[in-house]
Structures are given as C-alpha cells and as structure tokens.
Amino acid sequence: MKLRFTLQQAVAAVFVACPLLVMAAPTPASTPAAPYKSAADIPVEVFFKLSDYRDISISPDGKTLAAIAPINGRGNLVLIDIASRKAKVITSSSRFDVAESRWVGNKYIFYRTADGQEARGRFVFKGTYYFDVDNEKTWELENTNERKKGDIHIDNILSAVGGDSPEAYVNMRDRSKDYADVYKFNFKTRKAKLLTFESPGRTGGWELDTKDRPRIAQRDERRPGKGQPQMTTYWHLPIDGDKWEKIFEQSSYKDGVMYEILGFDNDDRTLYVSTNKDGRDKMAVYKYDTTTKQFGELVHEDPIFDLNENAHVRLIRDPDPKNRKVYGLAYEAARPTRIWFGENPVKKIIDTIDATLPTTHNGIVFSEDGSKVLVASTSDVDSGSYALFDTEKKTLEPIVRNREWADPKNMAERKYIGFKARDGLPIYGYLTLPRGSDGKNLPLIVNIHGGPMVRGFTFSSWGRWPEAQFFASRGYAVLELEPRGSEGYGRNHYTKAWKQWGGTMQDDINDGALFLVQEGIVDKNRMALLGGSYGGYASLQGMTRDPDMWKCANSLVAVSDLGLLQNVAWSDTSEGGDPATGGYLENEFKLWVGDSNADAALFELRSPARNAQNVKGPIMLTMGSDDRRVPMIHGEKMRDAMLKAGKQIDYKVYAEEGHGFNKDVNVFDFYHRSEDFFAKCLKK
Fold first, then answer.
1. Distance CA 71, CA 98 (A)
2. Is the residue at 381 inside a domain?
3. E strand or H helix that includes residue 123
4. Is 35 helix (H, G, I), strand (E, B) or coil?
5. Pick from 136, 142, 137, 139: which is nearest to 114 by CA?
6. What's the sign of the alpha-carbon dihedral 251, 256, 262, 265?
7. Nearest CA to 447 among 467, 472, 419?
8. N or C: which terminus of the chain has fewer CB atoms within 10 Å of its end residue's CB?
9. pLDDT value of residue 9
C-alpha cells in the first residue's frame, strides 16, 4: 500500500510541481499533454514527431541519468541530475544524431553519432566520442567512417569496470579494419591493452565471462564456393588455457542447426546457448558445459517463438558485479515475458514494481550498488515512461514520459492473433481495432513488414512511427502480419518461404484478411494493403495477383521487379562478396528468392511491374531518390507500366531520402497523403 500511495504522490509532484529544469540552451523539446478528446483528434504532425525522451540510462552510482532528447531537430545527449532534476545538454548537433550511449563508470559517457536522416537509407556511424563528466569535456575517438591515422576505432563497449574507474572492455578494430579484438581501454589516458592477441582470427563478435575475460569468439569463415553457404564458427577459450577450440558452426542459409550465445553463468563454466539442435523446429535455451563440451538441461522453450535475437532474449542477472548469477530469462513472446529459475532478490523487486504498475511491462536496470532501479514501462497503449525505484525506501518516482500527447486512455489495444494458412501453416500477427468500435465490419489495412526475413512486430514496440495506432485512430482495423519467411517462428516457418515471394507468402496475407472477414471483424469489400520494401512489394503483388480482393495499396520504397533485385548494379545488395564465390546475390538470394535466368517464368509471374494490366484499384507508390537498397528504377518501372495500362497511380519521390523516410517534412507529408488515400478508397 505504501508503494501505491507514494507513486500517486510522486506523479503529482514530478509532473505538476517539479518538471525537469534544463539549465543549458538549447533545451530539449517538451510537449505538454494536449487536450485531445480522442486519438482521432491527434494530428499527423503530433503522431509522427520524435519522442520527447528515449534510451534513458542510469549511472553506476545511481545519481545521474543519460537520455537522448530532440534538440535542433536531432536526437542529442542530455544528462539529468536525479537529486535536483536539473538537466545539462551535452550535444546540440543539427547535423547528426546520438545513436547510442553507454556509461563508463560514473565519470565518462561513451556515445556514437549517426545521421538519422541518411539519404542512402543505410545506418552508418559518423563519429565516436566520449564525455568527461567532471571536466565537462568531449573527446573524439573518430569522426568519420574512414580509417585515418590517430583514430581509435571502438565498435562497442562489452563491459565497463564500474565505480569511478575510467576503464572498459571494448571491441576495437586496430589490427584489422574488418575484424575486432578485445581491448581494455582507459578513457582517461586513452591507452588500450590488447587482450586477444592469440585470437581465432576473422572475429565478428566476442563474449566475456563474468570476470570480463574474453571466452567466446565468433569467427566469419570464408565461403567455400559458389552455391555454398558462408559458415560462422564459435570458439571457446578455457579459463586456464591459451588455445582456442571450435565448439559450434552454423550456415548462412539458416537451414540447419543454429546457435546464439546468451552468456555465462557466474561459475564461468556454464554457458547459456539458444539452439535448435537435435532436429528442433524452434530455437530453445540450453545450458552448455564448456569443460565437458556437452549440452545439459533444456532451460526453456516457447511453443511459438524462437528464443533468439528475434525475440530479444537475454539473461536476467544479479546486479552485483561480484555475483552476476543468472536468475532467469526475458524475451518478447506475444507479450514481453520473464522466466524465473526460482525465487531471488531481483524477482522480488520486479514483483513489487509490477504490482504498482500492473498495466505495463516494466523493464529494469539497476545502479551498481543496487540502491536505485531505473524502470522503463511500456505497453500496447502506453508509448513508454521512465521512473526511479528506491530499493530501500520502496518508493517509485516517475521521471518522464516518451510521448506526453499519447494518453493511454485514447490508444487502441493490440491483440495477438493466430490462424491456419490454406496449407495448414500457423501464421501470427497483431490486430489493432479502433478504440470504442464494436469490432464488426470494419475497413481493414494489412500492414506488411519489410525484410522479409525478420520478425517485424512486437507487442509494446511503438518505434519511430506508430502506424497501427495512427490508422486505428482513423477508423481502420490494422493487421500487422508475420507471413512465412518472417524470422523467429521456427525453421519450418522460415524455409517454407524459399522462392515464395508473391506465392504462398502472398497466400498468407490473403488468408489473414479472410480470417478476419470470417470472424465478422472486417468488411471484405473494404480491404487495403500497406507496406515498405518487401512489404511494398507484397502490396503491389496483391493488386496484380488478386485485384478483386484488394481495394487499393499503399507501397513505399517497393520492389516492383524481382529481376531488378538481382541485376541492378547500383543496388547495395550487389556489393561485396569474393568474386570467386560471389556474394549474397550469387548464393543466398538464389536460394531464398530465385534466379532471374533459371526462374525466369516465376519472376515474370511474380513481378508486379510486369503485370500492371491486372490492377483494378488505385495504388499510392512513394520512393526515395537516393535509395540504394531498392533503387528508384523499381518505382519508375511500376509507374510507367501503370500509366501505360491506364491505371490509377499516385506516384511521388522524396528528394534526398533513401530506403525509408526520415526528414520530418517528408514523414508528415507521407502520412497526410496516406490518410487521404485510404479515406477515399475505403469509404463506404
């Protein structure tokens, strides 16, 4: 009872009487809660603007928060003193965004910058820096993506020593521009000590044990020949040994046994590994004894999801750096899920927080001494907020909301649904219905993710663009679908998509919509498609393959011709790879999508730009002028085919945008156009 009462008091105190005071100009953007009566009243410019705060982290001593806030139209770094609630702006760039930050002890913050408005549609780090808190000074490690004399190429921090120590264990490219070693780096002296001199070589990733010793190396093997997968091998270094030994290998085709290293338990002998060994369909978590080289007990499996990076699976540990015992697992199932290995101190704290905030998923990060817990809360209707839990006083104090305008009472619930495709394969997705609707005979927008070999949607992820909430607020049912080929649903679900772009993958999209029609939720005469990249392709393919089913399609940065994916030389998918063995297009692409020569008839049938004469409804197609993943020729070919066939198309190109749109003016324009487009084609 005390905790609930304290929370209510804190809400009043923090949000009304004591807002954050920013002491340096320019100030982070802050949006007071607007008096929107319903989500339908929220304008496009509010729905799709940057969140007020994101990626908040707590210093090891629990006294300071680091956050990324919109300043000068970019995501910039801000420090917040917890006791005084005063904030200090650390960066105020109008050219680049702070992409990530990490505390190094209490005195330094490592951060990397990138251009969130990168026209080429690629996430490229532009610089690496760190801030000296005591001396209020920023130090540069490197300022471009090009290697030059004097640069220090830290890819990421693996572990910080903690306390007031300026040292951290880092992935650093010094001996090679392509592969990383582990160094112990001192941010005060800028000196580095190499810890992996005798490494397996060609290392793409490292895993430290709980004593911060490099123990697992991920090695990228050379492709043996054309038509052959590239192999990844995992190597282990015994605690008292000096010779690396190979323990696992896996194929880039992802058709065999896969492995993902989660980390060591505090005995530094037991390794938690996610794998689909022994003919399993879905990856599950096992214990692996690095001494005997044997797998032990099955720790946890999920009936629907792979327990790997697609589910964001991670170990829950004791926060004490001298303990680090593994207490459980956290991962994204249909909803965020925790699995405990028994009662423990961390579970007790989370149970206390969850009892106070029962409607949200509450992620936590401890200060080093365990006295403070940063709580990040989110749900399908709550875009996110941060609070601070005092483990001694048992008080929970709100800090800030991500989006003040997004009142959870106005937002629509997202439900996880499943159905059987026509061939019996289980397909899943999220369904969002307009808040307050009776859920019957609604117009439908099927939102298809890009990739397609990714897990496209999670329960509480609002992301940069909360599309489901936006379109639901305008009166549409929104189905976010995971058709076959989406990763994270097992090997069978994945491999059944090979050479099925526009085939059974398209059937899954149709079957999802027809399932909702059968349930009485959707009006079969008012159904539309929406998607970008592969999702844009599937939207166009739906209009050419099944023109009587779909009223219209809204496609962005869309593939329109499968042959162009393979044959356009100025696409970034054509870059890389050994000339002798070929890269992605000569190998994985031919297996997963097909070959323009060997599968010419298939490509002809499944390329929307070659079948525009079949289209019956309007298409909205939007491209980026500098897109190198799906170059503009895809849009031009579809546009020309539509016009030649006398079909209706709304075609637009955003200048200086790439594979996706990032400039506010273009984001706002796109969703204004989308709002008008769907209103016209799905009206009763």
1. 11
2. no
3. none
4. coil
5. 142
6. negative
7. 467
8. N
9. 26
Cα 92 to Cα 107: distance, rounded to the nearest angstrom? 20
Residue 589 lies in a domain: yes
User: Which CA distances in Å does 453 have to 198, 333, 493, 605?
Assistant: 35, 18, 11, 22
Question: Are β-strands 181-186 and 191-194 bridged in parallel, bridged antiparallel, or unpaired?
Answer: antiparallel
Tell me, yes or no, whether 127 lies in a domain: no
Query: Is the distance from CB of 429 to CB of 417 less than 8 angstroms?
Result: yes
Alpha-carbon distance of 262 to 306, in angstroms, equals 13
Which residue from 338, 478, 348, 383 is spatially nearest to 46, judged by alpha carbons?
383
Interatomic CA distance for residues 370 and 107, integer angstroms: 18
The pLDDT value recorded for residue 586 is 86
The answer to whether residue 486 sits within a structural domain is: yes
> CA torsion, points 300, 305, 378, 358, in degrees to nearest 10?
-50
Query: What is the C-alpha separation between 306 and 288, in angstroms, rounded?
Result: 18
Distance, in Å, from the CA atom of 434 to the CA atom of 439, rounded to the nearest integer, reads 8
Count of Cβ atoms closer than 10 Å to residue 438 Cβ: 9
Which stretches of 282-436 are assigned E, i.e. beta strand?
284-289, 294-300, 314-317, 326-332, 336-340, 361-366, 372-378, 385-390, 395-401, 414-420, 426-432
Tokens for 335? 């909803």
Ranges in the chain, pLDDT < 70 = 1-35, 117-124, 144-149, 460-461, 463-464, 569, 574-579, 684
pLDDT for res 367: 94
> Rounded CA gap, 659 and 640, in Å?
21
Asked if 420 and 427 touch (Cβ cutoff 8 Å), the reply is yes
- Tokens linked to 258: 């896969």
Structure tokens at 200: 């397996």
Give the model confidence (pLDDT) of 225-280 as tens digits: 888 888 999 999 999 998 999 999 999 888 889 999 999 999 999 999 999 999 99
**Residue 664: count of CB within 10 angstroms of its CB:** 15
**pLDDT of res. 146:** 59
| Residue span of the structural domain in which 638 resides | 412-681
Amino acid making up residue 205? G
- The CA distance from 75 to 98, in Å, is 6
Cα dist from 9 to 12, 84, 86, 396, 470, whole Å: 5, 18, 20, 10, 32
SS3 310: helix
CA distance 126 to 284: 37
Task: Round to whole Å and give the CA distance between 50 and 678.
Answer: 24
**213, 210, 142: which is closest to 177 by C-alpha?**
142
**Structural domain count, the chain:** 1
Number of Cβ within 10 Å of residue 422's Cβ equals 11
Cβ contact 30:404 at 8 Å = yes
Output helix, strand, coil percentages for the chain, rounded to the nearest 5: 20, 35, 45
Give the CA count within 13 Å in the CB-facing half-sphere of 195.
Answer: 21
Q: In 10 A of CB 402, how many CB atoms?
A: 20
CB proximity list for 43: less than 8 A, separation 6 or greater: none
What's the CATH number where 609 sits?
3.40.50.1820
Phi first, then psi: what are they for 514, rounded to 5°?
Answer: -65, -30
AA letter at 108: Y
